Amino acid sequence: MVKDRRYNRVKKLLLAGYITGFRELFDHIPKTLVGKDLGMHNQTFSKLLDRPENFTLLNISRIAALFEVEEKIIIDLIYTECAINRRLKNER
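User: That's the sequence. What structure does it adopt?
Assistant: C-alpha cells below.
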C-alpha cells in the first residue's frame, strides 16, 4: 500500500517543531485517513481524539510509525493536548 504523501509533510513539521499539539496534526492530514490507516473505525478514532488520555501505547506506536517519528514525539503531543483539556475543564 502506498502511503499518503501528507504523512511526510507532517513529519517535517513535527521534526521542525511547528506542530505542538496533537490536534494540530489534523490541520494538515484528515483524521479519517489516519484512523483508516490505523485500522480504526472513524467513530472510534474520533472518541479517542476527544479523550486523548485513552490512547494506548500500541495506538501511539502505530501513529508514530505512520508519521515515521519516534513514539516520544507523539506522546509529548498527546500529553500537551491532555494538559490543555485539563486546563479548559478547570476553567469551566
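Helices lie at 6-16, 31-38, 42-50, 57-67, 71-91.
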